[in-house]
Every structure is written in C-alpha cells, then in structure tokens.
Specification:
Elements: H1 19-24, H2 27-32, H3 38-65, H4 69-89, H5 93-110, H6 124-141
Helix pairs in contact: 3-4, 3-5, 4-5, 4-6, 5-6
C-alpha cells in the first residue's frame, strides 16, 4: 500500500481590510505619512482650538434643536474635528487642541446668564453630548501618531 502525503492546505485568499481600515487607513499607512513642518503645525493648533470651540457652540444648539438626530450629528462633527486634528498634525496635541477649545466653550455655555437663562440646558441630551464628546476626544488623543513626542518632536527609534 502506498501512502500519500497530505494535500497542502488551500491558499488563503488575500484578506480584505475592514471598513474602518479602508476609510481611515491602516496603522502602518498612517504612521508612514510625512509630518507637516513645525510652523504649519503651530498654525494648525491655533486653528484647531478655534474650530473645536465653534463645533462646541454649534453642537450645543444642534443637539437641543433636533433631538435625537441632532445629538448624533453633533457628536459626529465633534469626533471628526478631533480625529481630523490628529491626522493633520500627526501629534496627540492635534487632537488635544480642538478638545480643549470644545471643552472650554462648553463650560462657558453651561454657566447661567444673568437673566437666569441657559444656553446649554441641563438635560439628558446635553449630558450625553458632554460625556460622549469627552470620550471621543480621549479616544482620538490616545491613537497612535506619526511622532513619538507630544509636540511632534521625533521620539526614539522603535
């Protein structure tokens, strides 16, 4: 009786990247992108801070005006600004600057006016917007970046 060698396993089909990897790029692709010059990053930080404050202002009105779709729209815009800052600058501060502007504007909007009115009423949707935006900001600020340093200064080789 002749024994045959087991047949080799069939060749695996090339793995298709997941939807987030196709939209946002893989980690290797993101880390291989060139970093903008320092002057460009500093200007971008200022613009991102102001953009974060504007998104906070608009989001506080939109989430109240069109509940619940407005809440989802406001959170999507908030997350897009945080992630966009991370991708544009390539640093964690790129996500932190719009987060700081967003949070500072929200704190100002939550203070009651002298007439007794609120811009951002203490409702469940407002608290979800505050908590959800904070979580999105922290998530974006902890994603891998192109530089090893906080401000974009290259870190040690890994």
């Amino acid at each position: 009786m002749i024994e045959r060698a087991p047949a080799p396993p069939p060749a695996a089909a090339p793995r298709r990247p997941s939807l987030p990897a196709r939209v946002l790029g893989t980690r290797a692709e993101r880390l291989a992108e060139p970093q903008p010059p320092t002057a460009g990053r500093v200007a971008a930080y200022v613009v991102l801070f102001v953009l974060g404050a504007l998104v906070s202002l608009c989001g506080s009105f939109v989430q109240t005006l069109w509940t619940p779709a407005g809440l989802l729209l406001a959170l999507a815009a908030t997350g897009a600004v945080f992630y966009g800052g991370l991708r544009v600058t390539g640093t964690k501060l790129g996500a932190g600057m719009p987060l700081a502007g967003w949070f500072l504007a929200l704190m100002v909007l939550m203070v009651p006016r002298p007439e007794g009115d609120y811009v951002l009423w203490p409702t469940l949707a407002s608290y979800v917007y505050l908590f959800g935006g904070s979580v999105l900001g922290v998530i974006c600020a902890t994603l891998p970046t192109r530089s090893g340093g906080f401000l974009g200064v290259p870190g040690p080789r890994r």
